[in-house]
Design a protein that fits this description.
alpha+beta; rod-shaped
Length: 188
């Protein structure tokens, strides 16, 4: 005995697809930025220093006198010389007056002449440092300098631009080339 057979035949669907890809464009414009730096404020205040040098005593120690001091010195030396000369002549006059009439006429004149002539021994010699120590007087007052700096903050201005987006969506279209089918046959 034969059993009938069922034969099933299927045909798949066939499609022709047309795909258009989506397009996305992104453009980012540059940001605009401006930076400015104001200059710092600088203030400098100074007071002058003073230096005073007094070399008057040192100059007089080495014999460099001003005109006034030189005139006074030599005028005083001249006065002293005149007074010494007057006192010497007075003394010699007294010697001659006291010896007069005592038969010492010539011997008095000779003794006076010997007193005024002949080698005179100079005074003691000593070493002297010229100018003397501490004769130059220095007075110094230092100056001051005050510096003030005021820092200025930089000025930064930034303008951010938004991105430009362009989007074209994709599209899929399809055409059916073959329809699906199922065929069933019974064979005996």
């Amino acid at each position: 005995m034969k059993i009938p057979q069922i034969q099933i035949t299927t045909n798949d669907i066939k499609m022709d697809w047309s795909i258009k890809d989506p397009v996305q464009r992104i453009h980012q414009p540059r940001a605009k930025q401006t930076i400015s730096q104001p200059p710092a404020i600088l203030e400098i205040h100074t007071t002058d220093s003073t230096l005073k040098i007094d070399s008057t005593q040192a100059r007089s120690d080495i014999g460099m006198l001003t005109n006034k001091e030189s005139i006074e010195k030599y005028a005083q030396a001249g006065k002293e010389g005149v007074l010494k000369g007057i006192s010497r002549r007075v003394k010699e006059g007294y010697q001659m007056m006291n010896a007069a009439g005592k038969d010492q006429g010539r011997s008095v004149m000779q003794s006076i002449a010997q007193q005024n002539t002949g080698p005179k021994r100079p005074g003691p010699y000593n070493i002297k440092f010229v100018p003397s120590v501490g004769s130059v007087k220095i007075d110094y007052t230092p100056g001051t300098t005050d510096v003030n700096i005021a820092r200025q903050e930089p000025k930064i201005d930034t303008q951010v631009n938004k991105p430009i987006l362009e989007y074209t969506p994709g599209k899929v279209t399809g055409t059916m080339i073959q329809r699906p089918s199922v065929t069933i046959d019974v064979k005996s």
